[in-house]
Amino acid sequence: MKCGIIQLSKTADVKANRLRLAQKIEELASKGARLIVNQELHDSLYFCQTEDVDLCSLAEPIPGEATDFYSSLARRLGVVIVTSLFERRAPGLYHNTAVVFETDGSIAGKYRKMHIPDDPAYYEKFYFTPGDLGFEPVQTSVGRLGVLVCWDQWYPEAARLMALRGAEMLIYPTAIGWESTDTDAEKSRQRDAWITVQRGHAIANGLPVVSVNRVGHESDPSGQTGGIQFWGSSFVAGPQGEFLYQAPSDAEAAEVIDIDMRRCENVRRWWPFLRDRRIDAYSGLTKRFLD
């Protein structure tokens, strides 16, 4: 399957961001992409660097203006598009939501981010209610997509549950980067860990992984930090963790990657991790900690 990924920098102009993203989606569709994956919260700057109630005005209902825009694009180009939107579910109730559009423009499904971080420059708990849709793959014309979002990518439980529910691919729209005071050595360790843990999900579940990050520097509106330098490095890995594509850490990228979906069956036969799981001995995983 031909999968397109789009790694971009962003501005505060939502309309301009959408139009530019649409141009990239059109380019990838013209190159044969059947599935196109975007980064986390791609319509705006990453607003979670500060806690500001006025920024909740960026949220939109689903369906709404944003979904109408991407629905029309998917229908016109005949592609499946994975988007990442700030969902307004009700007054004062918001989610970080991935919406998947089918080739006819319909909403194939959505996923609400389950793991919500609360760290300096990533104050997401202020904005997002944890997801309540579970770890359910989205059925599309290109397969069953296990769509998760950013912080979810650090949790093997999320990847495993998607795999156990029949996901044929793991997809992670992402917004992650470096704080300006981090040393070069620490920056390298963080980025390498981010890549390694997701390649591990590919290996442990015998599935391709598509991880799409934003890139470029975004200032901290409060001035309390040096902002975030998003490290890009979007990648696609095969079911043995092998790199099929890696984007640069310091530049935009829009590429089409061929993914051999048939390899997953063979890899799972060679490494039958699902067969050998000791499901009788894993009850402790539902505990916070085992004292």
Structural account:
This protein is of the alpha+beta class. It has a single domain, classed as Nitrilase/N-carbamoyl-D-aminoacid amidohydrolase (4-Layer Sandwich). The chain contains five helices and 17 strands. The strands form four sheets. The chain has a six-stranded mixed sheet with strand order 5-4-3-2-1-17. The protein has a six-stranded mixed sheet with strand order 8-9-10-12-15-16, covered by helices on one side. The chain has a three-stranded antiparallel sheet with strand order 11-14-13. Helix 3 (156-164) links the parallel strand 9 and strand 10 (169-173). Helix 1 (14-30) runs parallel beside helix 2. The chain is globular, with a radius of gyration of 18 Å.
How many DSSP E strands? 17
CATH topology name, in short, is: Nitrilase/N-carbamoyl-D-aminoacid amidohydrolase
Question: By CATH's scheme, which homologous superfamily applies?
Answer: Carbon-nitrogen hydrolase
CATH second-level architecture: 4-Layer Sandwich
- Total number of helices: 5
Spatially, the strands of the biggest sheet line up as: 5-4-3-2-1-17
Name the assembly state: single chain
Largest sheet: 6 strands, mixed
Helix content: 10-25%
Q: What is the CATH class?
A: Alpha Beta
Total number of distinct structural domains:
1
Overall average residue pLDDT? 97
State the separation between the terminal residues, measured CA to CA: 46 Å
- Helix-strand topology string: EHEHEEEEEEEHEEHEEEEEEH
Low-confidence stretches: none
Structural class: alpha+beta
Portion in beta strands = 25-35%
C-alpha Rg, in Å?
18 Å
Q: Looking at the structure, what is the overall shape?
A: globular
